[in-house]
């Protein structure tokens, strides 16, 4: 395994870091999250249009860069450092892989070029827990996470027996990432009733404001990750893929989950590294009893421990970018490192670390919210252990 980055990947990192340093400072982030979009559309045009971030992992035939998960994760590491609010994760990691894996030739040709250039943003709407649907914390093959029958969730009904593509959706999805502004919704819905129960994925062009679709942005702990409630009432939808795609939906969701986990791990590693760098600068400048507080042995020990955590998290994130099968375990490690780094940032900044004007609380919120939305850590690790049959045959 050659873990070294190529010159193109280093250039991508440098260019992206310079751009974000100019357009995504602390005040810029605070201003962007309170806009109706939840992010800065101008910055998104720079990221997706000029740098092509949304199409990094998409084939060149559809207007993408022809890269892979490594390039996308590298970009997410840089956006994670500054907590840049953008549709990148939902569009490039959640929705685009599903369209590429399950979509018909017509659907891929009609959607992927617009996803690649950022003119169309997208997300995944699931009625149940997102980490279960993505097979990050449990198996998703039984479809119980999608509801059905008396369990509620989202129901799909075929409009006409002769038209396999046209369906109608009923139900609600909660905590949909970037759901209030995404132009395309990939919706997981239950169909077939009890005798032929199955979960399928459907496309809803939200930018066309179809009848029966209601989207409401929710208050979120981490304002840099926009969440929405999405309701479907007689909402027209198009089946993603053919009528026989139901058997492939769980595995397609799991693959999208691995891409998402690798990108999230890189984001968390980048955010943790930024917390460490900012704290080191502070303890060098802040004086107490006539000397920098970084010269005290207790502070040195805490920062040394934090350095080890950040480096191991970064190694785990890079390995997951190279081998997405390890993404769930890497995500657990990186979320844990970010939680520790954010807490130490608050503590070692002293009184100013608790103030609303300081950036430290934004990283605490990101660490907490990501674990609530995609974790928790112990379930990510348990699922990784089950996937590797680590405890098979062991009495517990």
Automatic annotation (TrEMBL):
The keyword Flavoprotein applies. Its EC number is 1.-.-.-. It is an enzyme of class 1 (oxidoreductase). GO terms for molecular function: oxidoreductase activity. Residues 6-118 form the Acyl-CoA dehydrogenase/oxidase N-terminal domain. Its cofactor is FAD. Residues 261-386 form the Acyl-CoA dehydrogenase/oxidase C-terminal domain. Keywords: FAD, Flavoprotein, Oxidoreductase. Gene3D superfamilies: Acyl-CoA dehydrogenase/oxidase, N-terminal domain, Butyryl-CoA Dehydrogenase, subunit A, domain 3. Transmembrane segments: none annotated. InterPro entries: AcylCo_DH-like_C, AcylCo_DH/oxidase_C, AcylCoA_DH/ox_N, AcylCoA_DH/ox_N_sf, AcylCoA_DH/oxidase_NM_dom_sf. Belongs to the acyl-CoA dehydrogenase family. This is Acyl-CoA dehydrogenase family protein. It comes from Streptomyces coeruleoprunus.
